[in-house]
Amino acid sequence: MSKPGAFVRGQSGNPKGRPKGARHKTTLAMEALLAGEAEGLTRKAIELAQDGDTVALRLCLDRLMPVRKDRPVPFALPPIETTADLTKATGALLTAVASGELTPSEAAELGKLVDAHVRAIEVTDVQARLDALEGLKK
Q1: Which residues contact 75 (CB under 8 A, 6 or more apart)?
Q2: What are φ and ψ of residue 102, in 5° steps?
Q3: ∠ at Cα 100 (61, 91), nearest 5°?
Q4: Structural domain span for residue 115
Q5: Is residue 115 included in any domain, yes or no?
Q6: From 6, 36, 45, 69, which residue has the greatest number of CB atoms within 10 Å?
Q7: Is residue 59 pLDDT above 80, yes or no?
Q8: C-beta of residue 50 within 8 angstroms of C-beta of residue 82
């Protein structure tokens, strides 16, 4: 049992709070102010961008093509079946960075995936060894 006033894991502190999908009053007020003006404002932003206004240009381009947060990385990673294969995988990542095939940040993210995979292999190996030991005891 928890102390009075203490947070309970998995339970909202305000179960009757704002329902999902509810919108803030300020957002609703701004939408009401801009109602019917979207086309004219968009046209004006485009005109300003075409006249060289860099802020308007950035606004237009950000709406047309938002900044990409992630992208597929075509990369041949050697198979990792045992922890011994880890050096091959990390070596391939280092080679790809050195050759410019991957950026350092892309290699770091792929390295995290490799690390997670190796940990999964280790856990599976430990479980197999434990099962084998328990089989010997019986």
Answers
A1: 92, 96, 101, 102, 110
A2: -125, 150
A3: 130
A4: 83-137
A5: yes
A6: 45
A7: yes
A8: no
Tens digit of each residue's pLDDT (9 = 90 or more) over 112-125: 999 999 999 999 99
Domain count for the chain? 2
Both tokens of 89, joined, read 């995988």
pTM of the model: 0.49
Question: Is residue 75 situated within a structural domain?
Answer: no
Shared domain for 60 and 87, answered yes or no, is no
Torsion of CA 91, 95, 97, 99, to 10 degrees: 180
The structure tokens 């992208």 sit at 71
Q: What is the pLDDT of residue 4?
A: 67
Q: Is residue 124 part of a domain?
A: yes
Q: What percent of the chain has pLDDT over 70?
A: 96
